[in-house]
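Translate sequence into structure tokens.
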Amino acid sequence: MAEDLQQLRAEIDALDVEILNLINQRAARAQTIGRLKNGTVYRPEREAQVLRRIKERNPGPLTDETAARLFREIMSACLALEKPLSVAFLGPLGTFSQAAAQKHFGHAAAPTPCASIDEVFHDVASARADYGVVPVENSTEGAINRTLDLLQDTPLKICGEVALRIHQHLLRKVPGLDGVAVLYSHSQSLAQCHEWLNRNLAGVPRVPVASNAEAARMAAADPAALAVAGEAAAELYDLQRLAENIEDDPDNTTRFLVIGKHDATPSGHDKTSLLMSAHNRPGAVVELLQPLARHGVSMTKFESRPARSGLWEYVFFIDVEGHRDEPPVAAALTELQEKAAFLKILGAYPVGVL
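Result follows.
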């Protein structure tokens, strides 16, 4: 058995060297491509195509998700050789927004934590950050209204999306629940764990704060405090997990948007996001939806928000399947331009996956 182990370890060592050489060959070719390209370094459609191909051709025993995650990090490191990307997100460090940014851009990107979603938009618009990652909706609690409101006015484009499974943990600096006086978390997380908290911590005051990571930081400084936050925040602030996965919905997922100064070209599996308003007349909203049905374009999201232009006026946020440059979507958009009181294409981008 000892000889067998030694032989297997020697084979693994040889494979490690081969893998290292192949990764460096890939990195060298990525550098060459970077020198040949003009303008934008990061191409979301290209990365989406690579990751889809990796999943399709993965023979195992690694899962498709694990294989894709490994190649995401390889691409992230190769991209950093061309130009390290700075990515803004709702901070501080340890938030789910940071986890979404790392899932999409990998760990080689430079993290830029921001105090608010507004600051994420501002940092990207002012070129303090190359891209931003902002939450837009949660499967349990619905739309993130501040993100929708900011999309109305920004010149930025949506160039990607990230779907992140959200697991909430009950955290504390010390073990047990003796002497607990307060519980901190973001308002969305408190809502996502509402029933669990009612059953298990009904008498503990809940205080909403700016982010889950901020809640963890406060709990780390106060032994009488609890926090509801994710794994990254627990590790960052060295907190104990008193209970894990306390979200009421086990499929609790948040969708994040990647914002930048460009959108993406077609990748083969895309989505287009629109913002539009209807004329103030009977049947106007129905008229807006008819071009989509006529051209066979499937709508995956329809959300209304108050417009900034007047009292009791509304705009509609719509996601459709397909890229804006694909003929059915392009034809529907041409008709919508004529029928809508206002139409803005927020971006076309590869569909995000869990």
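Note: The longest helix spans residues 2-36.
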